[in-house]
Amino acid sequence: MTQTLSWRAAIVAFVVGVMGVQQLAQLPQPYWLWGMPLLASVWALPRQGGWRVARLTGFLLCWIALGVAWATWRADLRLADNLPATWAGVPVMVSGVVSDLPVRTDRGQHFEFNVDRVLTPGAQVPSSIQLSLYSAHSAGAPAAPPVQVGQCWQWMVRLNRPHASQNPHVMDMESVRFANDVRAMGVVGTRPQPQLLAAWVNSPMNRINLMREDIAQRIDRALPNQPYAGVLKALTVGDQSAIPAAQWQLFQRTGIVHLISISGSHITMLAGLAYFVCFWSWRRIPRLSLWLPAQRAATLAGALTALAYVALAGFGIPAQRTLLMLAVAAWALWTGRTLAPTRVLAAALFAVVLLDPWAVLSPGFWLSFGAVGLLMFSAGARVGEVHWLQAWWRSQWAVTMGMAPVLLLLFGQLSTVSPLANVVAIPAIEFVITPVALLGSIPGLGILLHVAHAGMSALVWLLQILATWPLWQQAEPSPFVVGLAMLGALWWLLPRGFPARWLGAFCLLPALLVQAPVPATGAMWVETLDIGQGLAVLVRTAHHNYLFDTGPRYGPNSDSGGRIILPYLRGEGVTQLDTLVLSHDDNDHTGGAGSILAAMPVDKILTPLPTDHVLIKPYVQHYLRCETGLSWAVDGVNFHVLHPDVSSYADPTLKDNHRGCVLKVDSPGGSVLLTADIEAPDEAYLLQHPADLPSDLLLAPHHGSHTSSTPAFITAVHPKWVIFTVGAHNRFGHPHGDVVARYANQGIAMWRSDWNGEVSFHFTPKQAPTMLAWRQAHQRYWMDGASEE
After folding, report:
1. Are residues 152 and 19 in the same domain?
2. Could you tell me whether strands 91-98 and 108-118 are parallel, antiparallel, or unpaired per DSSP bridges?
């Protein structure tokens, strides 16, 4: 192995070591580092003969160990800046500076805050936190003050450790927050009144963020109530908060999400444009070329342009990765070195992982480096001169085929129109809309913002046509299948004439034809999702899928249906629902229904909601009213509706909770009782028919509220297991301590979605049920132990 190849292999080994640490539930102890000198001793082995393999193996193991040591040390430093459990949820007075653009919603403001002083004696608070300042809703409550970047405030906060839902196939926001160094999250109290200590704290980053805020406000003023003003803000200052959910769905369906941000391709495009403009102009002035060669001047212009654009992005981590890659290329151009493209890629990879060991957790890391690597492989595989159009088409084909397995692993679906949509969207956004929007953000050139908006409107019109084409959607492939498919794609992309290229296509097939496991006939799978404070349960039989409730709506552009349930269903290979049960009209049970009904075929909607309800009216042909006595059987599994009684619909004053749909599911391997938010009076009604109640698994009524789970009801159901579907640190105090004690006193095993994440029960005939808690099965060293609170 040549020296160049060995150092590239060393960088890959270093990254493997870093990746390994990010998969651990606990950080390794330092004593294993004593093995490093032993690994390093392989350099003393002879270079010739049979020792070469041992020397190379030890060399790579040494670099893996270095990666492990580096990632462990960095993780120890970050974990040390923590919120102690004793100070979680406790009022603490702090002062500090608003460090990023606030995100404003109807409910209030959300922003990052750098703490410089903790004024509560003995309190410990991390240096970097996320805060929410909510608008006043009650009469006499102090109004929430407007917050701007660079301001210094003193206020009372209640903090908790970062905690996020844990489900298969769903983005792990807990890891995202840890990677972004958010070490606590909380709310600002309005009593005592927050004090503005300084209207402006001068610092380079604050000046940059103030400029970003000015540009965002300039776009809002120039384009009031225009549908794509949020997209222009995303392209100019990296602020995606104003893009509505419907637009995100369109961009995802057409495969252009990567373009709706200050991405690596945008930064590279602008840097390249600045390079070529400067190079062309510089060479036209001989005296300038004598003072500084045109290539160096152009390199400097491209690097400064990239730096400026990354600053506009707020120095986000994805933008920093691109800046590092461009910095390596700029260094090579400045010094006149001729570096192989793979050496530049390897050096950038090493720099990114060295500075940010958690970059390997980001899908963008793998997509960006993977796409660049595929382009290099495609270019290197060409033989002879190729027409530029043919070269461009081959590069697009290489990226599409090579990244398809990775996209299926990360997102569970492929846009069949993505290649065509990107052919139009890439030049439109990168060469027209983004540059024009950036020019329009300059004072006096605001008219160009209207031009950029018109261009975006035309592009969206085309995307809406393409979005009617079908998606390729399937179950999530395993990492082994993805690796096999990647090797197959590389083999297939080799030059014509290479032997057996067709074998590469066969290696791709397993990733594109994944069949998810399903229950056997007579078996039943009960998957209780972790969606925060709310309920969403998927009941699966051999050929049917039933979703009981859809969790909450989090905000105007976000709900648990789009954020959690749909990605989960795609990852499990579920393409349609036989029945969607909406148990009652509460946000934490129906908030995600709109997203699910819009994205997935549903055969029946079983609910007590009226037919003129906003959720039901467009789908009234699928409506089935939930009432006692309904029953059906499929795949050897029986379903029975136990509540509400038909007479409850005659009382318009009845609380929604008292009309909740209760579903009992019986299988030869076990049974489950899904209880919605029923309370003590409803439990008393169910106790009139005690023979219907015994169940192996119980979904705790009303999330474990003190108004439910009466002792008589628990005794009648006599479950082996109970699940409390609750949000971490929820304001209702669910589950209530007395309720927990009632279940504990009867020896019932308890599960909680905030402690255990998604909880899966598989009931199979003639077998003991199997159980899996996702948070414990996929524990990582940074995860919050909510049970410690």
Report:
1. no
2. antiparallel
Q: How high is the pLDDT of residue 217?
A: 92
Of 201, 226, 242, the residue that ends a domain is 201
Tokens read off for 760: 């899966």
Task: Give the whole-angstrom CA distance, residue 641 versus residue 634.
Answer: 15
Amino acid identity at 149: V
Q: How far apart are CA 92 and CA 87, in angstroms?
A: 8
Give the start-end residues of each E strand in 422-544. 471-473, 524-528, 537-540
Q: Are residues 309 and 290 part of one domain?
A: yes
Query: Quick check: 56 pLDDT over 90?
Result: no
Element (H, E) at 437: helix 434-440
Query: Which amino acid belongs to residue 182?
Result: V
624 Cβ contact partners less than 8 Å away, ≥ 6 residues apart: 579, 604, 605, 606, 607, 630
Question: What pLDDT score does 765 carry?
Answer: 96
Pairing of strands 670-674, 697-699: parallel
Mean pLDDT of 445-451: 95
Range of the domain at 404: 382-416+475-515
pTM value?
A: 0.88
- Mean residue pLDDT of the chain comes to 88
Q: Are residues 407 and 330 in the same domain?
A: no
**Is the residue at 397 inside a domain?**
yes
- How many domains, in total, are found in the chain? 5
Burial 495-533 (b: 16+ CB within 10 A, else e): eeeeeeeeebeebbebbeebeeebbeebbbbbbbbbbbb
Backbone phi and psi for residue 86, each to the nearest 5 degrees, phi listed first? -70, -20
